[in-house]
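Allow me, if you will, to draw on your knowledge of protein folds for a short while. I have a record of one protein: its chain in single-letter code and its fold written as discrete structure tokens. I should value your view on which stretches of the chain appear to form regular backbone elements. Thank you for your consideration; the sequence and its tokens are set out here:
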Amino acid sequence: MRFFGVGATWAVSLLAAYLAFLAVVQGPVTLASFAAVPPAFTLDLGLTPLAAPFLALLAMLGVAIGAWCLRCERPVDAALIAGFVATMLLVLVARSVLAFVLAWELMSLVSAFLVGANHRRRDVRRATFVYLVVAQSGALCILVALLLLASHAAGPGFSDIASSAAAIPAGTRTAAFVLALIGFGSKAGLLPLHFWLPRAHPLAPPAASALLSGAMLKVALYGLCVVAFELAAPAPAAWGIALVVLGTVSAIGGVLYALVDHDLKRLLAYHSVENVGIITIGIGVALLARSSGALALAALALIAALFHAINHGLFKALLFMGAGVVAKTQGTVDLEKLGGLWERLAWTAPLFLVGCAAIVALPPLNGFASEWLTFQSLVGGFVLPDAGTRIVLLGATAGLALTGGLAAACFVKVFGVAFLGRARQPKKSHAVQPEQERFDAATFAQALLAVFCALFGLIPALAVVPLARIAATTIGGPAFTGVASIPPASLSVLPIALVALPLAGALACFALAAHRRLRSVPTWTCGSPVTPAAQYTATAFSKPLRMIFAFVLQPEHRRLVESGSSPWFPARIVYRIETRDVVDEGARWFGALALRVARRSRALQSGSLRLYLAYAVAALVVVVTLARR
């Protein structure tokens, strides 16, 4: 069954690649149409240029994850992965209401089986239940939205709805957009409907987590784009403003919760919330610019959104695979228990580093190229005539810059704590030694995704040029003209130029150190022996930022209790219930007394130099008096 699943995954991936090429070259294509006596039951399958980047992403991920499945522990997982890829392909080619809803439900059902793969664990069953509730609620919203739009069209096909979209009343289109935003946004993990994602994604097998975060979230964003740019068009400026604000909040919130989390897979899931927010910002700017008539700017923003969707799928799948290797070899993904993994995982460590550099948008990798285009679209929007729109775009620009800085700090913590330094736990018999990790199928899958990350970063025109044609077709205008004019050829020069300067500085420092023959000495820890306990922990690294953003973040112990509880109860209530059940009454009384005494003792630390001198004189008098006795 394993080899059958891998072969089926690769076959579907090749089909997705062919369909993506066909959609770019030929434009809209009808693949099949199954008429029914009730017209509402018509099943239409076809292609549009907007589906091409998502099909290409599915093809690249399918090839890599198919190779990974050659070493999966359960053969049935490989078959489920093949079915999952096939259902996402069906969603991307569905061109009628019934076909889309059926494909969407199949995708949700297969993904639920993957989330609940380890169903013997209670937390897995609970996460699967929460995921199913969110998925079915979102599917209901999507169905109502599509039915609202189809009720004003000549037929249930997407082409019929799109041709009648301009005649649909504005209130109906807005209601359909809101319902679609709830349905697709909950599946994509947008705040505040993201709560299922950090529960479900970390509990799935590594290959499933890579597909859930790398592909399924993007398929949800594809559905949102279909409604906004095609079925409910033309979109008013308010839709774009709502998406920009929602995307900015999701980006900042996702990265903040990732920063304070120490479970590697849950941390990566929170970063999916962040990057989905960045993609949503690009979609929102495209809608804003299109409503204002700035077609070139709208095309640029859509290019940035689609390009970042592809890039995020690639490096997030790479990171989830690396986390899977860590979990298998170390038995845990708790950063507080990891360390020195570079020595044990000689292949996974450098490939994971590529993923870390890509997700924090360091040149010359692919994350930099797409985030730079997103910044360019935000800055280009400052020329729009409405003052409120410019204020929203200014806030989104500041939020995106803050997100980038926090993401960099987060992955410095991740890689530094987990892969550098020394091991924090005694070596176990099953731990992989440096010479034991071989270049196998799983390593090939990670290396392939790392190559894609580098390729789209060094030569972004490979993606930007076809995306420009797709954006021009979707928006209805030229992709690179006017205020947002950015020649695609210059995209290859910028990341190389940005990375060349720090490399030159590093080489100069290395040459200077070699010339001066600087000596190296052992680590000094005040005369005590150097042990792994002296290393920085993940908690210590993130504590300054956690204190700065304490007004937004929940305290760590409360959030951890909430992560294993019902999503319908606030974290504070759950924490109090857990405390009354676990903590002894006497211990609580002693702790309250100690805190009260500590607060009263603050008066002794007044900061007055005269008072401190008085303390010294009093201590001297006491010592002399006792000595004389």
